[in-house]
Amino acid sequence: MIAAGAALVLASGLRKTAIGLLYLGTLAEPLLRASRWLEDRAREWNPRLWSRDEDPRNDIRERRP
Question: Is the pTM of this model over 0.70?
Fold first, then answer.
């Protein structure tokens, strides 16, 4: 009987924790998207941030058209 009560309390706590993390993730997702967008804009305008493996351009050649 005590084990069943402890399991119910633990299950309730885990459920509330999971719901809280879900809400936190929902709020954090737009911030992460905005951060990625800003990093992409910075990479476009600063040749030193270009990835040498993915972008064939280098410091000499301008990225801007």
Answer: no
